[in-house]
Write the structure tokens for this entry.
Amino acid sequence: MGKALDGVRILDFTHVQSGPTCTQLLAWFGADVIKVERAGSGDVTRQQLRDIPDVDSLYFTMLNHNKRSLTLDAKCEDGKKVLEKLVVSCDVLVENFAPGVLDRMGFTWERIQQLNPRMIVASVKGFGPGPYQDCKVYENIAQCAGGSASTTGFDDGPPLVTGAQIGDSGTGLHLALGIVAALYQRHRTGRGQKVLAAMQDSVLNLCRVKLRDQQRLACTGVLKEYPQYPNGQFGEAVPRAGNASGGGQPGWIVKCKGWQSDPNAYLYFITQAPVWQDICKVIGKEEWITDPDYATPEARLPRLEQVFAAIEAWTVTKSKLEAMQILNEHDIPCGPILSMREIAAEPSLRATGTVVEVDHPTRGKYLSVGNPIKLSGSETEVRRSPLLGEHTDEVLAELGYCMQEIAALRAKNVI
Ligand code: COA
């Protein structure tokens, strides 16, 4: 069946994390992704957080699989001519430069449309139109401006950022969806369009439930599933909820056997209402099945602290995986806190291709996260990231440059 995006050509002008996440996904779905990088240095992440001297960092290799690399000085006249040919021959231009960079290079929306009316121009920016539209933005800024940091952490601590890269990778995912939708619309209209995913917007989209809670709080003055209820105070804004579940089924992180020495000996436990009786039996609190203070979800809400304390008194006697096995036998939803070390070694993630081992000519073997989205008719095969400029000659030849012309561009440091 080939690949879902076979035949789609992407002019990949992305760098760092957000844009590369997007174009890597498109490449995994079969698009031909040509990454344009500055000659000599390339994407700044090639050199960031290096673990092996003079070798592309894991930061870069893990975000740029299945792409081709073309080095190009996009600011000189000869470089711009190459870019123009790429604009004409590609379907999508993806970029995540600081605001205004593409315009300053001379590639305004109008110019791109003139060159190729079918071109889709997809951008990640920190903020959408408004007072902050010209600001540069990195991951944690987006987490803070998108509502995540103010709602993450514990009530008595400062706002917290999360390790999940919801600002960068999260926005890259949003952009990829926008691009695929624009490609689909182009089938009908024959026209390209601009696609914008702002990092603040993407984080907010992922924090949708917190805007829900903001309005519930404004309406009732209380959020009964939050740890501040019933003894703490609620202010005017949604507070940090610790490890409380974001949904209608109360949950919390509880200690398991070995927690004193293992920082990840914990389990997420959800007191799902339909299995309340089983929970009571497993943790040895059968009297709670009929006790009016505990028998219904509503009655339990002011007593969640006591509920989770009783659950923890049981879980500390089991390892997290033992507890999970017992709870799953009763269909009680729970999840172990897995360390990255455990995830790297997890056979089922290897079997599905979610964790893959990749071989790289200068780095050797390394682990990466493969395509988390599985298409039954478009299987992902993870190929290593390109070396800087590895495909420059190949791409230029495809654009019609002969060997002498390529050599001349190289002599002038254009490529
Ligand atoms: N040839 C010539 N010049 C090139 C080039 C190439 N191949 N590729 C990039 N450049 C130039 C650009 O033209 C720009 O020059 P200018 O400012 O003189 O116009 C310059 O490189 C720097 O680009 P910029 O995007 O401003 O990089 P930065 O390192 O200063 O900022 C970010 C990095 C991430 C903060 C910024 O790009 C940004 O805010 N991006 C949007 C939000 C985003 O994606 N953030 C998350 C990143 S994970």
